[in-house]
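Handout, section B. The chain below has 81 residues.
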Amino acid sequence: MQELSQQQKVNGSVDVDLMVTGLIPGFEVSATAYILVLQIQSSSGATYNIASSTSPSTDVGAQDQNQQNLPTSNNNSIISL
């Protein structure tokens, strides 16, 4: 946490590389990729943004237009910070 309090700006990139399927086989679905990012706010009101590069296969996924997570496979996404 000490490192976060000293610096908040981080450059990074995400290479989304995964296969998405719908919840119901045989029906077309529109999907949007997502990346998990966490924002923490201290009791004094300071905010800190956190992204993880250690587990891209769980931090990158896909959702449909109703924000439901969709099944993915072959998730070879890369998060570089």
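Note. The mean pLDDT is 82. Compare this with the example in section A.
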